[in-house]
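Page 37, top half.
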Amino acid sequence: MSETLFLGRVLSFHRRPEGAHDEAAFTYHEAGAVHVRDGRIVAMGDADDVRKSVYGAHVVDHRPHLILPGFIDMHLHFPQVQVLASWGKDLLDWLNKYTFVEEQRFADMAHCEAMATGFYDGLLRNGTTTGVAYGSVHATSAEAMFAEAERRGMRMIGGKVMMDCHAPEALLDTAQTGYDESLALIERWHGKGRLSYAITPRFALTSTPEQLEAAGALCALHPECYMQTHVSENLTEIERARELYPDAPDYVGIYERYGLLGVRALLGHAIHLEPREIDVIAGTGAKPVFCPTSNLFLGSGLYDDAGLRARGIQGAIATDIGGGTSYSMLQTLNEGYKVLQLRGQQMHPYQAFDWITRGNAEALGLVQEIGTLKAGSVADMVVLDARATPEMTLRADRIETLAEELFLLMIMGDDRAVAQTYVAGAAQKDV
């Protein structure tokens, strides 16, 4: 039995803050501690109180840094780690020029394994302990993605892309092979360790009706799995979806028709939604995923967070590597804040840090396991240093409140502000 006491300023949310003064939405201990036993949190609270029930534990002192739950990234593309920072006119141009070319390399298991090492190193260096990721069309990509996550003990959700049309021949499966390979991967990996499978039709533009029907059959056969796809990211993409599926009422209606929507459905981007589409998302419990850095990078549009929340729709937030431009969830908050400002909406730092921890965990239905520091949760944690750079230190000298510190971290922070990352209580960064 291993037992560790982590000391620091401890912050954990238990509901979404309603605004700048809603301090009842979280627990914060200036002189705090987290007691971890065999990878799970036993207690979190004031250090003097927690110490009373701890005997002989190893002590790790992170004072004066902040200890929070590990970050959760809800939309990643594992095969795109080497297309970050690739110039393109827009989404479809970028896909054809870079992404589809790069993803062909993932037929080679040795390449997949090498990329998996860099992929997870990047996540953990930036404080991300849970990810939801797309593989390539090749089963090898999902095998490597899951195997490396299992080796590191990470909570990971993902799947091989299903894609049987309108892409290079080397990236096409068929409705039947996409179904068969996905089913085999579900049977091999779903529920193994901390892993879950996401049935993954890339988007309506690259799947025939037969393949979407097959994906829907998988969802019906395995309702415990997630489903991830893209919707309404780009205006040209939307027009193309209408051309390919002229009988569908709209883009969301394509997925609705084939039984792909539900509380475990994760809809990447969801920017240009029409009223009926919003009604369907609200009615099914599907989760839109806000990807601010890629939406800005590709010029796709501005996500309407307040409008969706007003309809009771719980969105998630993510980096969208490699259309996204940073592995950092801190920098994702930075760009997300700016997108919402352009929308005339505000994201307070309390809401921001709740979103990348408890909020994303709730969207996954995993808030009992991850996303908070409450007793019983897996000890996935991140330690943040608001004085990580000289420029941050200069600003920090004038900070007076926790909210100001969190805002500094989300605007100026990146991997340098992550002093340590823990997966099930085990340190991941060499410091």
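Page 37, bottom half:
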Amino acid sequence: MDRRDFLHLTALAPLALAADARTPAAPATGARPSGTGPYGPGPHGRGARGAELVGALGAGRSAPPPDWARLRGRLAGTLVLPGDSGYDDARRLVNPAYDRIRPGGVAYCASPADVSACLAFARASGVAVTPRSGGHSYAGWSTGTGLVIDVSRMNTVSYAAGRATIGAGAKLVDVYDRLARHGVSIPAGSCPTVGIAGLALGGGIGVVSRKYGLTCDTLESVRVVTADGRLLTADATHHSGLYWACRGGGGGNVGVAVSFTFRTHAARDLTVFFLHWPWSRAAAAVRAWQSWAPSAPDELWSSLHLAREERDLDVLLVGTYVGPKASLDRLLAPLVARVGAPSSRSVRTTSYQEAMMIMAGCSSRSVAQCRRPRREAFAAKSHLAYAELPADGVRRLVDGVARGGRHAVLLDALGGAVGRVKPAATAFPHRAALYSVQYYAKGTDRTWLRRLHGELTPHFGEHAYVNYVDPDLTGWRGAYYGPNAARLAEVKSTYDPDRLFRLPQGV
């Protein structure tokens, strides 16, 4: 593939790719959630944790055989079972590393009532449930061997009086497209096929976050089907604990979200920029960027990519600016002075919608074409940087990317509006972080990821982003949620006391 394809498949898309990272529940009762190969102790191994999960009926109690025909009869949507036409398509996630997983059934729910019926089925039969929106889970936890509750058909996008109401199955490309018709948008990421549910539930780091906040920061209310089958509307005054948990606590913990209402912002023209430097400037770029990007004006968001594709090493700065090109040029000047003249530079002011298509790698494609996911096996890990990398850390980062393979590290600027929200105000705790770090490798081998992540952990600490879910983490509660973990556990006990929703890394 050419450099442009590599850029968008391994760099731009992951900004929102993992938005579904926490949506699913674990596989069925008594089944090892990962098995062997890409799910076992090898490339995607997560050890034995959660291997012997009990269903909603509890250990030691028998359940009748699942009555799949009865469930099918109760759904307005479609239940796809093994042997049915379309089963192979229905069971696949975006990441083909998990194609070997075979659910007992995939329910395409047409309404909240369908979701409630699926949860009643799970409670009665002991079959584990896996909610799924876009199917982008980094760990493959958007599927399992039980019942997959797919909400992709609940994908409406409507707008009125400054508010957008979005079905949990809406893909990001459609959210941007439909809201653009009203001249508005919400802050979100770049991957066009990610589902809005996972993105918002995990927080939602995106390409205008510094100006408008995380996706969850504009969430005013959410409708959730809880484990007992109730459809609840959670906001600041109704089920406020559930509302709090749905803003950064990750999907798959306390219920199945079916729709969201967000405040919108005006979709102003954006200036999109791409600057490349030769690899010899990689260390200088990291040093300069990390002291420049998190403290830039809110209107300026940027991401520094260090990438290797076989023998080709690349340093790329990509970003968006809510303002004109001339103003951006002045803001870029101090960075360029420290790093050196870029080998190539592209700066363009365009409509908000076109900017989102560019960031999605879809500038030459239609919305319909962009809606179809590009499937390529990958693995990932993450950090949140609360302090700048010292000289030794910069050296380790640059040397690590230079090692042989096909991989990238993405540094996404935070600060701005993200940092002005108190860490306890939402379940997303990393408000003081300067930037997020994503380690991204093509294929399923996690060797490079684990090595570089381990080398940089002494500098970055044990902080990770729940939407870049990492099956290797043992201290994941603290890494994802920090001091918010205890309150999340309380919300879990209130809305799912029998633990119907069970994740390998579940609250």
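Margin note: Residues 325-339 form the longest helix (15 residues).
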